Amino acid sequence: MSDIQRHGTTRRFSDSVVHRGTVYLVEVPANLDGDAAAQTGNLLASVERLLAQAGSDRSRILMATLYLSDMADYDAMNAVWDAWLPEGCAPARACVQARLARPEYRVEIALTAATR
Q1: N or C: which end of the chain has fewer CB within 10 A?
Q2: How far is the C-alpha of 29 from the C-alpha of 41, rounded, in Å?
């Protein structure tokens, strides 16, 4: 049995990868017509499903990097993030502006979490 578990694997990427009690994932929104708040809510719902599939949850996130296509969306994204994250469980986090892979993306997230 491999000590690396991959979920949702395609030729190019896996939805999540688990190794030695740590889960790694990157998520983008599926609702490409949504504003930054709607896209953040959409991708965090997906992150929550991926974490559960990997044996983790949002209280176990260790590090998160949020990518915004426009820093003008920072407050809208943070309002959704702050409401979603359990009290006292904030991970180490960075937020940067970047040119994302698709022009419709307003937000993208990469994170690392501990499994249970």
Answers
A1: N
A2: 8
Whole-angstrom Cα distance, residue 1 to residue 88? 36
Q: Is the pTM of this model over 0.85?
A: yes
Domain segments of the chain as ranges: 4-114
Chain-centre distance of CA 33, in angstroms? 19
Task: Give me the DSSP letters along 25-85.
Answer: EEE--S-TTS-HHHHHHHHHHHHHHHHHHTT--GGGEEEEEEEES-GGGHHHHHHHHHHHS
Question: 103: buried, middle or exposed (CB in 10 Å: 19+, 13-18, 0-12)?
Answer: exposed
The alpha carbon torsion through 70, 76, 80, 83 (nearest 10 deg) reads: 130
What are the tens digits of pLDDT across the range 63-116?
999 999 999 999 999 999 999 999 999 999 999 999 999 999 999 999 999 998
Contacts of 92 (CB under 8 A, 6+ apart): 62, 63, 64
